[in-house]
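## Example pair
The file below holds two records. Each record gives the amino-acid sequence first, followed by its structure token line.
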Amino acid sequence: GTADYVLSVPKDALVFVNGVDVSGNEQYITDTDIEYSEVSEYKNELANPRVCCVYTFKGMFFKPNFSVKDAEGNEYELVNYDKNSYRCDLAPNAAAIPQYEELAKGFAEAMMEYTFMGRENLNANFNKVLSKTRLRSKAYDVVMGSYAGMYWRRDHTIVYNSLYVDNYVGYADNAFRCDVHYDVTGTRVNGGKVERVAGIYRLLYINNGGRWEVVELNLLNEAE
């Protein structure tokens, strides 16, 4: 039988199917100017929001080979998010990445201090993490909800086995998402018990009034 394939790409991206350039071909474009659903609830505050274009290829006997590139020829990474459906996200401006990396690592480090530095330092570290989030945002609520559990934590010294940021997505001039990968070993100050925590924080940032704030925080693939 045959199958239909759907490809969502940044608007104005160059699209190739089995090596054939179909960019802008209205025969295959089934929707355009689609907002990113991940930031739809914040659309009223986005500056120059990015939009997607949807291509649909019908009646294909074999899985096509998709290639999507920007105007400079740089290839986007394709994600297969549903059966026969693919998307590629728009990376932020390369010049902004160092700032974004610093923001994300700073948040992860604050979370590690909050997690490992014990009851004596709990309130100070709790407020430090909250200060990096938007007041009453989804991220703020996640941190608020963790306080009771952190109260029972003891003081540890920590060593970072790894800490890095990837999977940047640029949703607007003032909004981006990224994943912070952390792998930390903590040693309890009194008792010497060793604990290792590794996982990924997925952060959604929006610049509000000149200040970058975490508005959404999700924990992915935690391993202890």
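Second record, same layout:
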Amino acid sequence: MIFTPQEVEDCRLLYVGPVLTPTQISEMLAGERDRCAKACEHLKPSMDDVISNSFFGVRGVALVDAASAIRNLGDKS
């Protein structure tokens, strides 16, 4: 069941838990985006792999693009 803040107050219910501000939520999401982007970059193949197999070069570009796209998710809100 979901209660509005006024209903909680009227019923004298007690909520014990975190209440995050929009700024805190934005900071948490930015941190998670950065961790995801770093994970993509970590998977990027080495230059030796790129030279020996063109597939790895395409994969590396895709991972860098994915990392950039993940980091830019917060710019649209």
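Notes on the second record: The chain has a mean pLDDT of 78. The longest helix spans residues 22-43.
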